[in-house]
Fold this protein.
Amino acid sequence: QEYTAIKLKVLEWTEEGKKEIAGKLPEGAEVFLVAATLRPETMYGQTCCFVGPKLSYGIYRVSSTEFYVCTERAARNMAFQSIFLERGVFPSVGTLQGQSLIGTLVHAPLSVHKDGVRVLPMESVLATKGTGVVTSVPSDSPDDYATVTDLAKKAEYYKIKKEWAELEIIPIIRTPSYGELTAEFLVKKMKINSPKDTKPLAEAKELAYKEGFYQGTMLIGDFKGEKVEKAKPKVREILLGKKEAFVYSEPEGHVISRSG
Ligand code: ZZB
């Protein structure tokens, strides 16, 4: 699987985050949460960034001034893709609990939300896929739509500020079947009530992927009016060119059978 790894720069740590990183980073260090996506063309619509609150993340040195936050598993993969300085080495300067990242303010490349977006909890983030960091696009990802809706509804329970989950969801892509807000359309049509409705959510995700890719037209950005199929690689090139993203690949995540 080849992902686009989006770099979300930390603008402001939480108090807990500050404690965990204290003394571990050099003066002037830039820290990025790294989110793996298959949909770079939707980055205009990022409204928050998800981490697994119970997952553990490492802080890895990319250069003397740049550091990436992701799972150790992802860092190990990156170490063989010329992302760090030395092949096979992924120098960790510390670890962070997902929970202590909740509320961190990050800059989301290309997002219309220029003042930054917040890091929020998502229980379904898999430690075994991507980087363990997921950038949220509730206009086009049913999982993200269901999660932000739930977060806003139960802000107190999640110990977040309601408004962090309520950044405006703007239309990014129009499709003939689902209109301008694919995720909202599918979640409502399929009567999905919670981020825990994993089966219908998986189905909605498949539908959204297919319709978006083959039938979608961009409503925003440098390639407004173009078909998603054409725009996708071009948006990706822009992000790569600006060093706001890099290519991250991982082997298909299957457990290798040792029987026989
Ligand atoms: C932004 C985005 C916008 C995404 C969209 C999807 C959609 P797949 O297809 O199963 O390989 N993702 C990445 N890593 C994880 C993880 N560790 N745990 C849970 N979800 C993760 O899934 C790839 C997509 O799943 C990624 O692309 C990411 O969300 C999420 F409009 O990034 B995506 C219809 C989907 N639309």
Summary: Residues 2-249 form a domain with the Isoleucyl-tRNA Synthetase; domain 2 fold (CATH 3.90.740.10). The chain has a mean pLDDT of 96. The helical segments are 15-21, 72-78, 98-101, 142-153, 155-158, 182-189, 198-215, 228-241. Residues 36-39, 42, 124-126, 129-130, 132, 134-135, 137, 140-141, 205, 208-209 surround ZZB (CB under 6 Å).
